[in-house]
Every structure is written in C-alpha cells, then in structure tokens.
Amino acid sequence: DTGVSQDPRHKITKRGQNVTFRCDPISEHNRLYWYRQTLGQGPEFLTYFQNEAQLEKSRLLSDRFSAERPKGSFSTLEIQRTEQGDSAMYLCASRQGARSTEAFFGQGTRLTVV
Amino acid sequence: DQQVKQNSPSLSVQEGRISILNCDYTNSMFDYFLWYKKYPAEGPTFLISISSIKDKNEDGRFTVFLNKSAKHLSLHIVPSQPGDSAVYFCAASGSNFGNEKLTFGTGTRLTIIP
C-alpha cells in the first residue's frame, strides 16, 4: 500500500457538467476526509466518513455536491452542474482512528471549470 | 473566522540557518497541532505534531514548540536545506470535536537560499 490515491489528478470540465472524483485511502484507515483548497488558502474541510457512514458535512458542501463511501473502502465525490467557483484542488485524507491523529493526504485532484 | 492563522505569507532563509515558522490559533478546544509541508501540485505531507499536554516535540531537524497560554506554536527547522523550500501549513484539531477534522492556516511559503 503506497498511501492515499486519488483519481484523476487533473480534470478540466465545462460549466454545467458533472464530475466525479475517486479516493482510495490507506487500507486499514477507517476515517476518510475530503478537503478543498483554493489558491492562497489552506485546505478546508468538506466532509467526513467513519467506515461507510458520512458523519459530517461542511456548509461549504452545497446540494450540488455528494460524497459516498460504499463498504467503507474507496470514496467518491461528485459535483453536479459545475460552476467556475468549484475550480480548486480537491484533497482526500485518511487516518487510522483514535490512536493516530495524523491524517495522510493524497496528491489531490485539480479541477478547472471553464 | 480564521481559527488558525499564519501571518507570514512568505519567509526566506539562508541555507544552514534556522527557519522559524509561526502559527496562532483562537479556539481553546484545539488540543492537537500538526505541521504539513506541501510542494506544488501535490497533497500536504505530514511533518510533525504536538499534543497540548506537551510544550515541545522534536524530530530530527524539526522541532515544534507550543505555548498554550499565548495560543501560539512555532516550527523550527535547523539547519535549513534547499529541499525544505515548500509551503508549510499549520493545522489544529480537537478530540472533543468527534470527527477530529483538521483546521488549517493559510500557509507560509519558505524559500531556502543556497
């Protein structure tokens, strides 16, 4: 296992299209997070899964966004009807649980909406 | 509101000298603090962390100091090396928050001058 994997690395889409990103966490990690990073800012929390349960969603996550983690393994983040303001780096992170607080990040998916 | 603040957007340090990156926080419920390093087009990489029960943690060339009364932490890198040039993010989490999501600062771009 080489760490958190995200796919695709880059995505260019036209405004109004739907996009889906995938995250494969470190295999033994039961906690999975999605963050978004825009230029000049630090990553901002979007949503959190513990196993397959989505336990929290940020107010940043509008109803055009949906995330899933079927079977508590990989996760997907879908953005419907993309807008130019959705252009950002989308980061996935995982951590093992209560004994380990360090979250390990994937390389991110860079979304550009044109 | 920005609960984690990094007031220096950039810092330049001569190779071999000490680099000191600063971070302030406002939420007294934070009890775990982390530093991440980020290269362009990559996800953040965990560097070092500190629990609120400690005031110092050291790992090789990296030392993090925590001053709880001042709600301030700093990262010392000594000696600084060219490979340390990156953006450094301070992050905080709270065990009482349930999901232990990370709240990030806006980052400091460190440039090591050969």
Binned strand content of chain B? over 45%
- For this structure, the quaternary state is heterodimer
**Protein chain pair with the most extensive contact, residues per chain:** A-B, 27 and 24 residues
> Strand-and-helix sequence of chain A, N→C?
EEEEEEEEEEE
The description of the largest β-sheet of chain B is: 6 strands, mixed
SSE pattern of chain B, N- to C-terminal: EEEEEEEEEEE
Please report the distance between the alpha carbons of the first and last residues of chain B: 38 Å
Alpha-beta classification of chain A:
mainly beta
Shape of chain A: globular
Mean pLDDT of chain B: 94
Task: Explain this structure.
The complex is a heterodimer of chains A (about 110) and B (about 110). Chain A is built from no helices and eleven strands. Chain A has strands at about 5, 10-15, 20-25, 30-35, 45-50, 55, 65-70, 75-80, 90-95, 105, 110-114. Chain A starts with a strand and ends with a strand. Chain B is globular, with a radius of gyration of 14 Å. Chain B is an all-beta fold. The chains are: A mainly beta (about 110), B mainly beta (about 110).
Question: How would you summarize this macromolecular structure in one to three sentences?
Answer:
The complex is a heterodimer of chains A (114) and B (114). Helix content of chain A is 0%, strand content 49%.
